[in-house]
Amino acid sequence: MRLHPAARQEMASPGTQRAAGCTCPHLSPHPPLSHLPLSRSVRVQWGYTNPISEYVHYSLFVNVSIVHYDSCLISFISLPPLLPSLHRIKASGLKLQLCTNETQATRESFVRKLRALGFDVSVAQVTAPAPAACHLLRERGLRPHLLVHHDLVPEFAEIDKTNPNCVVLGDAAENFTYANLNEAFRLLIGMEKPVLISLGKGRYYKETDGLKLDVGAYMKALEYACDIQAEVVGKPAKRFFESALAELGVPAEQAIMIGDDIVNDVGGAQQCGMRALQVRTGKFRPSDENHPEVKPDAYVNNLAEAVDIILQEL
Amino acid sequence: MRLHPAARQEMASPGTQRAAGCTCPHLSPHPPLSHLPLSRSVRVQWGYTNPISEYVHYSLFVNVSIVHYDSCLISFISLPPLLPSLHRIKASGLKLQLCTNETQATRESFVRKLRALGFDVSVAQVTAPAPAACHLLRERGLRPHLLVHHDLVPEFAEIDKTNPNCVVLGDAAENFTYANLNEAFRLLIGMEKPVLISLGKGRYYKETDGLKLDVGAYMKALEYACDIQAEVVGKPAKRFFESALAELGVPAEQAIMIGDDIVNDVGGAQQCGMRALQVRTGKFRPSDENHPEVKPDAYVNNLAEAVDIILQEL
């Protein structure tokens, strides 16, 4: 897959406006990949300032929220039609890492469900906020009070939770009770320097019975009440994507993020130096194409189209 | 009550720093009232740019949160010791208006409780957010979905609530369930132009069993999820204080706010052109004396001291 240097130049011309608030100097907004003069005969340079080897490994980040926008605890209703595309990625030899902000289940449970549905991945192929939070807690000697979904608690099994000196907030769903929120608040406000670690900052998500407030909304409630700022360890945090890249063993410029969330997937990956495609499925909204801060490197109509293009151009 | 013009001049000298963010040109921070050269023989001019008649009526706003910081639904534990001061105000002929952000009960219920405790006030003497919200709803033809305390619902008895086109948020307490918050969110996100009316923006408050998140925290959660800004009708909103002044029938410069909340009471009243005393009880924290944006016109140790000073100087 390659863009002709001249075509890249044209896209980055003064006529192309830079997305406000984006600080990545090497990234600029582009028309949909499908409109680009792709050629099998030349390998893509992606317009990076540092040229990449012609035989670069393209690692595909697949954001699980395009695999299923429903909670993985309830159903994987959107997964089956995507399986052929995922199998094609695997068969191509491309490395694949699933990046999810899912905090309603452990990675083990997540992988079990994927396998049951016919997609064989390992736990190491899943980057999720809870393990990132555990890493941070150990690093800083923090003992968390957990306000998370009960199915996520095992991820913190080996973390000392006595005499808490921070609060870890996940998408607690039914555990977001008045009593539990007050308890987390009281612990925070009682700390000399309140530390709130949030496993994401999503606004809302969709389940079979409708839209639900996501962890970000509750994070904002606690931030306001305590006059503090939470530390976010899920997408779009830089450390989250760095951890995924480390797991893959590839530099940012050799990885492609495919996601449906303009801020968490596309914006987060781009800020880490990756290129990112936005699929027009799941969370995608037509208004995303006019987002004031984030511009994907390309749009694709669905995962199958993204995989088609990438595999054709390898 | 009066400050000698020379003393006022001295207080407003360049050595006295203006509170950041305050836009009221005639208000400046002062040392505690008790430190001022008060004199019975001269009436206070309060340093306003427009001179006030010597025989001005001082109307006393008593913020109920200094009368009781506990929920009025549970107990009025702090009220009895304050009764003598409240009776003294009444006997002096000063007008009195209770300004509360209480949204866990109707004004009728609130007044009944005050009377049962020996303080006889009328419903008209209570300014509260719910009636202000009703006024706004009628004015704009809005039909609310209510996420409020069940004891407050009667305040909205005469408001059309069919086919909601806005959400009214109060301190719903136990009604702040995951399901109710999701329901309010879904209604908002489904509106072409979501309208969220909040009966206050307090961060938290204290009850006998500890600190509780206040309506402001939940307001922030919905604001973030829907990417909107709520309209606040309780303190410190300007329209709230204007409504209280209208009820009293006095201009702002003739009213004094006494409150324990540096932002909601003191800041709100000052922005409306009133002077405001902060009592060092209830919500008061020593750090309030270094608040970056709001400086009370004076500090008093408690309500009795405020009343002593005001009555002495009449």
Domain module count of chain A: 2
Largest sheet of chain A: 6 strands, parallel
Question: Low-confidence stretches of chain A at least 5 residues in length (pLDDT < 50)?
Answer: 1-58, 64-77
Count of strand segments of chain A: 12
Protein name (chains A, B): Phospholysine phosphohistidine inorganic pyrophosphate phosphatase
Main location (chains A, B): cytoplasm
Keywords (chains A, B): Cytoplasm, Hydrolase, Magnesium, Metal-binding, Nucleus
Family (chains A, B): Belongs to the HAD-like hydrolase superfamily.
Can you walk through the features of this model?
The structure is a homodimer of 314-residue chains. The first copy, chain A, is α/β, with parallel strands linked by helices. Chain A folds into two domains: 56-101 and 236-314, Rossmann fold; 135-232, Rossmann fold, CATH 3.40.50.1000. Helix content of chain A is 31%, strand content 14%. The first copy, chain A, is built from ten helices and twelve strands. Chain A has helices at 5-11, 64-67, 83-92, 107-116, 129-140, 178-189, 215-226, 238-248, 262-271, 303-312, and strands spanning 59-63, 96-99, 126-127, 144-147, 166-169, 196-198, 204-207, 210-213, 231-232, 255-259, 275-279, 298-300. Chain A has a six-stranded parallel β-sheet with strand order 3-2-1-10-11-12. In chain A, strands 4-5-6-9 form a four-stranded parallel β-sheet, with helices on one face. A two-stranded antiparallel sheet of chain A has the order 7-8. In chain A, helix 3 (83-92) runs parallel beside helix 10 and helix 6 crosses helix 7 (215-226). The radius of gyration of chain A is 20 Å and the shape is globular. Residues 1-58 and 64-77 of chain A have low confidence and may be disordered. Chain A binds chain B through residues 173-174, 176-178, 181-182, 185-186, 189, 203-204, 210-214, 216-218, 220-227, and chain B through 173-174, 176-178, 181-182, 185-186, 189, 203-204, 210-214, 216-218, 220-227.
